[in-house]
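Limitations

Structures in this collection are predictions, not experimental determinations, and the ligand pose is part of the prediction. Treat each record accordingly. The example that follows, with nicotinamide-adenine-dinucleotide as the small molecule, is included so readers can see exactly what is and is not provided: the inputs are given verbatim, and the output is the predicted complex.
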Amino acid sequence: MKDIIKVGIIGTGFIGPAHIEAIRRLGFVRVEAIAEHGLERAQSLAEKLSIPKAYGDYREMLNDPDIDVVHNCTPNHLHYGINKEIMQAGKHVLSEKPLAMNSEESAELLRLAKQYGIVHGVNFNYRKYPMMKQVSEMVKHGELGKVNLVHGSYQQDWLLYDTDFNWRLAKDVGGKSRAIADIGSHWCDTVQYVTGKKIVEVFSDLWTVHPIRKKPMAIGATYSRESQNNIDYEPVEVSTEDYGSVLIHLEDGSRGVFTVSQVSAGRKNRLSFELNGSQKSVFWDQEEPGQLWIGHRDQPNQRLTADPALFHDGAKSSIHHPGGHTEGWPDSIKNMMLGFYTFIREGKNPLHDITDFATFKDGHFSMCITDAILQSHEQKKWVTVQQHS
Ligand SMILES: NC(=O)c1ccc[n+]([C@@H]2O[C@H](COP(=O)([O-])OP(=O)(O)OC[C@H]3O[C@@H](n4cnc5c(N)ncnc54)[C@H](O)[C@@H]3O)[C@@H](O)[C@H]2O)c1
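Predicted complex:
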């Protein structure tokens, strides 16, 4: 592989610029081009961020022989088609989650990724926090004993009011599931990563708190507050869930439950979980990412502050600063990029080599969980997670 890997980014709303920033911190990868919905928008951001090339149509970027890797940072309904075209153009692909709109589509993407032999990743970045690597090492070393229970939640408040609006609310753009696919997917990926166990059965209850929302005439980027200041709006029906609670069974018989909500005032981006093992418990909240609560029965509980000197050897490479120099959300994305681009730089092959980041296989499994959760809610019963292939 070349010394400098050249990258194109499609979609530059909320997450696209976060990818660009993270890539730039690596040093051996260059953001060569961006593609947006319209040339003017692409050129304006390219100029602001000193990116050499701007495209108003992502297909032109896919024809650019200088580009080695393409990131898909567009809304959900475009993931399947664009990911497919990226692979057909012979480029490596890093897609945002959810990988597709359903598990049939994601199965096809996984099959094509194997067929084309390209490197494929999905930005499940929460598993890339240094503390998540440490927890996975603690579990692997048997420090918690047998992990029996896994429970937690992912809560946000940016869709609390019926005047809050975003493309994620529309089923044909965001998908049939919203809170589960958008944030529950991160929760499931993270707990499966730290426990090393897959979710195999689900029983869910979903609810749309605001079945009618007031759609502003002008909609800003994700998480922007423009909507609340805008007085011109139209009522629209919303069928995707604002809230969901899901009972889960993991493959080793351990059990758990999680709640997702995008209408929980005061909870900005609170992905949290607790593992209860036969010896110890741990609790983590991504809003305080450098802290891990460790629970004991026969001695006082502890609080571990992220510190390479206190981490397991296997977790040391995931933390880049001394203790107390807290690494957060942007750093988790940097860690995602570091794993993905080191894999490419070292010329590794996703068909044979172990990846240190979430791939289309994980993205597809995540879609299978979402499909099972939707089915469980509709049928009011336990559903087995089926892996379509
Ligand atoms: N991993 C994470 O933590 C995380 C966080 C936020 C969003 N996401 C995911 O990232 C994706 C984008 O979300 P967002 O919040 O950035 O949305 P956004 O609406 O803020 O940005 C999407 C961008 O895509 C552009 N776009 C739309 N169609 C396009 C096309 N045909 N060609 C090029 N650009 C096009 C839009 O103009 C917009 O700039 C979603 O799938 C979401 O699930 C992931």
